[in-house]
Amino acid sequence: MKLCWLDTDNRAEAYIFYKRFLPYARLSKKESVGVLYTRKDEDERQVIAAVRLRPIGSFTLLTGMLVHPDYREQGLAHQIMVSLADIFENNRTFIFSLPSLVGFYQQHQFIQTDDVPNDILQLFTKYQRQGKELVLMKFKDVKG
């Protein structure tokens, strides 16, 4: 399966997917939205995973990684991360991870960090004030 990037005018399926499985998610036109599809039959496809890349100043926030419950534990999230590896920039791509997913993101060269730009830190602090338990991580390519 290949990650398909959606035009801002062609996101209805992604909106429905997020509304069903991550109802608090708010897609922005500024974000890049990528999805994985599966075919139910010859004419009907279904979104089974999605991810969003949100620009924050000159940085990128990986957000909204979501796999359909029926398709979890099949490596789709790993497949998405591998697809995105060429897009991630050293010390410029961040994620606000759930504590239970830190190990997953570490497998894809994200590290916990306190060394963050102000734009990212402000957004992270805003989420923390809302009571969200998150871990701030950045992409750090060990080869780079």
From TrEMBL:
InterPro entries to which the protein is assigned, alphabetical: Acyl_CoA_acyltransferase, GNAT_dom
A GO molecular function held by the record: acyltransferase activity, transferring groups other than amino-acyl groups
Keywords in alphabetical order: Transferase
N-acetyltransferase domain residues: 44-115
Highest taxon in the source lineage: Bacteria
Coiled-coil stretches: none
Gene3D superfamilies: 3.40.630.30
Transferase listed as a keyword: yes
Name recorded for this polypeptide: GNAT family N-acetyltransferase
The species this protein was found in: Shewanella canadensis
Organism classification: Bacteria, Pseudomonadati, Pseudomonadota, Gammaproteobacteria, Alteromonadales
